[in-house]
Amino acid sequence: MTANTFGIAVCTTSAVIFEVCNAIVKYIGPRFVNLPKNKQQMREKISEFESKFGMIQAFGCVDGTHIPIVCPTNHSQDYFCYKQYYSLQVQAVCDYKGSFLDVEWLWPGSVYDAKVFSNSSINTNLRSLRLPGTFQTITKNKIKVPCYLIGGPAYPLLPHCMKEYSTCKKNDKVIFNSMLRTELNPIECAFGRLHVGKF
Predict the structure, then answer these.
(1) In Å, how far are 2, 36, 66, 108 from 126, measured between CA atoms?
(2) Among the listed residues 117, 138, 124, the one whose alpha carbon sits nearest the alpha carbon of residue 50
C-alpha cells in the first residue's frame, strides 16, 4: 500500500521502513520508552498508579499484542498465531497514562504471553532486583511488598506480576478481579492507539 502511494518498488519501501524503524529504536526510542532509572522515579510511577487505580505498589501493567506480518519464507508456522494470521508477538509495559515503559518484539506470533514474559528483560530485571525497587510494609505482620506489574490472565502469578483469580465466587475476589481488569485499561488503550491505522 505504501509502495503504491509513493510509486516505488515494494522491496525499496521495505528497506526504507526497516531503516527508519531501526533509527527510531536506536535514537528516539530511549528518550520516550524507558523504565524508572532510580528509586525516586519508581516511587513516582507507583504513586501515580495508586492514585489512579488504588492498587498499592503497582507501577505499570504488562500485556501482549500481535503485529500482523507477511508470511515469512522460513519457519512460517512459528509466526502463525491463534488469531489465524502471521504475526510478531509484542509485549509492552506501560504506566497509568498508557505511556510505554518497555517493549519487546522479538517473538514469533505462535509464542504465548507467559513464555514471552518469562524470557523478557523486564521479568529478569524485576526477579533479580535490577530495577530500582521499592518495598512497602502494608500488613500487620510487617511483610514488605515489592513493586510489581499488573498482568493479564495469560501471565504467571509472581511476586513481581499480579494477575486476577482464575475462578472466584467470593465477593472479595470478584471485586479484586474487577479492579485488576480496570488497571489493565492503560495497556489495552496503548495497544489500541498503536494498532489504529498502522497495521
Answers:
(1) 40, 12, 24, 24
(2) 138
More confident residue, 8 or 110: 110
Whole-model pTM over 0.90: no
User: Cell for 148?
Assistant: 510489581
Angle subtended at Cα 117 by Cα 23 and Cα 73, rounded to the nearest 5 degrees: 60
Q: Which residue has the cell 504506566?
A: 95
pLDDT digits (tens, 9 = 90+) for 181-191: 999 999 999 99
Is the separation of the CB atoms in 180 and 167 below 8 Å? no
Residues 106/97, Cβ–Cβ less than 8 Å: no
Instruction: Return the beta strands (E) in the chain as ranges.
Output: 58-68, 87-94, 100-108, 135-137, 144-146, 148-151, 161-162
